[in-house]
Amino acid sequence: MTRLVVIGGDAAGMSGASQARRRRGPDDLDIVAFERGNFTSYSACGIPYWIGGEVTDRDQLIARRPETFREDYDIAVHLRSEVVAIEPDERTVRVRDLAAGGERDEPYDELLIATGAVPYRPDLPGIDAAGIHGVQTLDDGQRILEDLGGGCSQAVVVGGGYIGLEMAEAMVQRGIHVHLVDRGTHPMRRALDPDMGAMVAREVEALGVELHLGTGVLGFDVGDDGRVVNVATEDGDIHADVVILGIGNAPNVELARDAGLAVGDAGGVVTDRRQRTPTPGIWAAGDCAEVFHRVSRRWMAIALGTIANKQGRVAGINLGGGYATFPGVVGTAVTKVCGTEVARTGLGQQEACDVGFEVVTETVRSTTRAGYFPGAKHLTMKVVAEKRTGRLLGAQIVGEEGAAKRIDVFATALWNEMTVDDLLNVDLSYAPPFSPVWDPVLIAARKSWQAVEDDLRANP
Q1: Burial of 245 (0-12, 13-18, 19+ CB in 10 A)
Q2: Which residue, 226, 315, 324, 407, could crosslink 285 as a Cys pair with Cβ 3.0–4.6 Å?
Q3: What pLDDT digit, counting tens, does each position of 2-52 carry?
């Protein structure tokens, strides 16, 4: 019998374990999963909505419990069990029992590393004080809720990315005053170009959040009780009952690196298209592994549940004796700040230039429905295309309800390496309750193609 050991009980790990089980029965494949937390297969992306009250029960975020994997899939899941070392030559892992104490060695024939990502915690004075939280696991969410319920009146969010904005909104919904500090000149600077990010900044301020942009954090003042009391910034101190770190995260590769596995320039475990590492018998998937960006042609680290589940599925199919490959990503993401929806895919304007493209850009403003139809909402769409060829390189959307999911049309076009002229002729649906007669996607494609043609005429 082959023994598969899985490190990590969330998206990639349990997706991989489940897929392997579907292809090989318990008499042929023994599957054991070790999870250092208290939960398996949950939606970390849903944590801000749980904290904000839109999701009323933590258990709503749990897709499958350990009992489900044990009883329905014959997968042995061990919670509060942290793998602290991998010995590739012996094909063993060292497991620490976080509940009862003690360590033991567990053998494996095949090993799937799905250790996820860890919130970035800058090396600043006071960073380890009580009341300073990352947002990565359900346990993190529970601790934040406990802190917010202890008389919290003001919170500081450090970082204006997806998690930072979502957590800022969640705390506003709980009646807590929020300051958001970010070193960049606009929120979501890694996702949006400055002109689109400025629109998000206005919406965040309209929510009641005090923005401190272009401002670095210097440290955290700690009270006699060991709790954070102030955030020291380049523009002065801000009182904080609670601090949320939304600076981003990094692949959790310490275990893999210590075992001698290859770690790439983007910071994730190196794998091939089948999710195999160069080390025999070891596979990696999810936030801890690098992904190939199909537009920039570079390897990246992107922490998203969609990617983690897909990579886990690929690894599990291969571990179960099948054949599958993970073809990469185009960098699609979406979020919401109250009534404002934000989406992006592909490359931004500067990102495209940084990898060697010469580009044209077009920004259009339109509505989610026919302008005369009740409920029509405004949206702004920006398209980045390659000069001369018109190849679509990226798109960004900021708008009201009904705007963001249009990004999926752009993502599909990017996946198939279409030009904006190709996109212009795609047969999208139309009816006044759903879009103008010229959908905003088609308007943006048309104007982008005009920009390409204008450039060709000016520079034959």
Answers
A1: buried
A2: 315
A3: 999 999 999 999 999 999 999 999 999 999 999 999 999 999 999 999 999
CATH 3.50.50.60 range(s) for the chain read 2-45+60-118+250-319, 121-247, 333-458
Contact between 291 and 302 (Cβ < 8 Å)? yes
Could you tell me if 432 and 372 are in contact, meaning their C-beta atoms sit under 8 angstroms apart? yes
Residue 419 contacts by C-beta under 8 Å, 6 or more apart in sequence?
385, 389, 390, 391, 392, 449
Residues 201-214 have a mean pLDDT of 94
Fold of 121-247: FAD/NAD(P)-binding domain (3.50.50)
Mean of the per-residue pLDDT values of the chain: 95
Q: Is 431 helix (H, G, I), strand (E, B) or coil?
A: coil
Nearest C-alpha neighbor of 6 from the set 89, 66, 72: 66
- 34-69 per-residue burial string, b: 16 or more CB within 10 A, e: under 16: bbbbbbbbbbbbbbbbbbbeebeebeebbebebebb
Residue 459 banded pLDDT, cuts 50, 70, 90: confident
Alpha helices for 343-403 (secondary structure H): 349-354
Phi, psi angles (nearest 5°) of residue 401: -50, 130
Question: May I ask the CATH architecture of the domain 333-458?
Answer: 3-Layer(bba) Sandwich (3.50)
Helices (H), 267-384: 305-319, 349-354
Query: Does 151 score more than 90 pLDDT?
Result: no
pLDDT in tens, 374-424: 999 999 999 999 999 999 999 999 999 999 999 999 999 999 999 999 999
**Residues assigned a catalytic role:** 45
